[in-house]
């Protein structure tokens, strides 16, 4: 498989434990630029808003993009161009829409896949995984082995993430912003609407844009005094746990999964995360991107493989392994109904058992 087969060293039991990537990022507006982290709902003692660990000002860490969110941004790359040739393209037809398995949040464990005509094939693949055979899952949903999957509603089979990426900002200063909506006309004053007499009508006027509406002290973004960093890990140790039960087949499987993982790991990642959050590599840093091989001894060595090298390896490995069949399957409402009913029955049984 050409010169890139030297990457087989990563499959050796005595090889590196992991590859670790560190991107130093900055807002497109510069180091003092304001950008917006995600906001989270209130719950479990969390007051809601930005996820900031530590005091609101000073030494703290703010989550900019979670490991789950990063995985869901990376995985769809395998739907496009040359990358699409590396994995099966499974589309699920639901009504008038088609959804690619590569863009659903829980991957092969997602409800849309579980309640489709793919159900039996996925169930068999998960049962094989429980027996230690990752081959069937690699044929239908190989990226589930890269970004992790948990068949939590059925077999409870799990595959850990091989590629994990997170973006955090350090020592952020949290800002607030206020706004005032001004309607095009004074609808009540002009006699176009009657003045609201009750709260429900007042709320309706505000919601539909007929009256002045103030918005005060809402989330105004952050300034990262300590910089922004994307940290990604490709766990080679976890990769070497994948098996089929056959030595040669296992070697081909691991090469295939390694190729996909390296392709995702080395890919240039878009820094546009959401409205108001567009991050790029910080060219002012001596080393905006650093990637190391980390060995079990703790020794770190520079990793110099390019994305094109990774892609070449992935192509050769995919050809040798044999990419699974691409197909379109149907979401079935009756399967979904049975799935919901079955989950309800399990909960009911659990409650009876506690009584």
Give the key terms.
355 residues; alpha+beta; 3-stranded mixed beta sheet; 25% strand; globular
Provide an overview of this structure:
Strand 4 and strand 5 (97-100) form a beta hairpin. The chain is an alpha+beta fold and 355 residues long. Helix 8 (247-266) runs antiparallel to helix 9. The chain folds into two domains: 3-171 and 225-354, no CATH class; 172-220, no CATH class. Strands 1, 2, 3, 8, 11, 12, 13, 14 and 15 form a nine-stranded antiparallel sheet that branches. A three-stranded mixed sheet has the order 5-4-16, with no helix packed on it. It has a two-stranded antiparallel ribbon with strand order 6-7. The protein starts with 17 loop residues before the first strand and ends with a helix. The protein has helices at residues 67-74, 111-114, 119-130, 135-140, 143-147, 199-207, 236-239, 247-266, 307-321, 333-354; strands spanning 18-27, 52-53, 61-65, 90-94, 97-100, 149-150, 158-159, 163-170, 172-181, 213-224, 228-235, 272-274, 277-281, 289-294, 300-302, 327-330. Helices cover 30% and strands 25% of the residues. It is globular and about 80 Å long.
What is the gist of this entry?
Helix content is 30%, strand content 25%.
